[in-house]
Amino acid sequence: xxxxxxxxxxxxxxxxxxxxxxxxxxxxxxxxxxxxxxxxxxxxxxxxxxxxxxxxxxxxxxxxxxxxxxx
Length: 71
Known about the structure:
Blueprint: H1 2-8, E1 13-16, H2 22-33, E2 39-42
Parallel strand pairs: 1-2
């Protein structure tokens, strides 16, 4: 998982996807809004609708059909 790899590198990140509980989703959204999380890894199907003045990049990262990361 990309979010875990970023966390392992010392980056304050969290995952965000439709398979999470509503409580976890709300927690990630709130922590991101309050700048407690710097990176959110979200699926395309579950976009966040980012409206934050300090967002500098939105990076689109793809995995292959087997779930393995692109090189």
